[in-house]
Design goal:
The termini are far apart. The protein has two domains: 5-91, Rna Polymerase Sigma Factor, Chain: A (Orthogonal Bundle), CATH 1.10.1740.10; 96-184, Arc Repressor Mutant, subunit A. With 184 residues, it is an all-alpha fold. The chain has helices at 5-13, 17-38, 42-58, 69-91, 116-124, 128-139, 144-151, 155-177. Residues 23-89 form the RNA polymerase sigma-70 region domain. Belongs to the sigma-70 factor family. ECF subfamily. GO terms for molecular function: DNA binding; sigma factor activity.
Length: 184
């Protein structure tokens, strides 16, 4: 029978390698999904995952048991991935951001023919800033104030980036589904 997260955490606090391996096996897949949402490549997501676990293991004394351990670990994965993303932005070529246009769609737009993989692919193709704010807000549940703090941007910029991400995503999904756009 698999050990509980609490038992694994306690084993990690006592420096037991088997507990560390167990915690990695239990949370690695989930946290890799978090890292993939924010890192520009799988290799960088793998780096972020490794750094996340290093931070988890070295900062266990900071986990006070207020809320689930998984949520605490997820927050570390998000901030670690965002920090790597920021480093990538600073050292790499600046990607041109696409300007989103207001999209007006007819009632009853049939997106049924789009697979989940196609939608995820479209989200992943958004400019990095848009994608990051969309993920933090819609998937991770952060407020615009928290996103601003995490990314070093204003709350208004976070709201603007989310709005543009939504419009651009909608536009791309319409195109993917071969649905005509209606402009006023």
């Amino acid at each position: 029978m698999a050990e509980s997260i609490d038992a694994l955490v306690e084993g990690c606090r006592r420096g037991k390698p088997a507990a560390q391996r167990g915690l990695y096996e239990r949370l690695g897949y989930q946290l890799m999904g978090v890292c993939l949402r924010y890192c520009p490549s799988r290799a960088e997501a793998e780096d972020a995952l490794q750094l996340t676990f290093v931070k988890i293991f070295t900062r266990l004394d900071q986990f006070q048991g207020q809320g689930p351990f998984e949520a605490w670990a997820r927050r570390i994965a998000v901030t670690t991935s965002l920090n790597l993303w920021k480093q990538h932005q600073q050292r790499g070529p600046q990607l041109a951001t696409e300007e989103a246009h207001d999209v007006h769609h007819p009632d009853g737009t049939p997106f049924d023919q789009l697979s989940a993989d196609e939608v995820v692919r479209q989200i992943n193709s958004l400019p990095p800033g848009y994608r990051t704010v969309l993920n933090l807000y819609a998937i991770e549940g952060y407020s615009h104030a928290e996103i601003g703090e995490l990314l070093g941007i204003s709350e208004g910029t976070s709201k603007s980036q989310l709005s543009r991400a939504r419009h651009l995503l909608e536009q791309r999904l319409h195109r993917q589904a071969h649905i005509p756009h209606y402009h006023d």
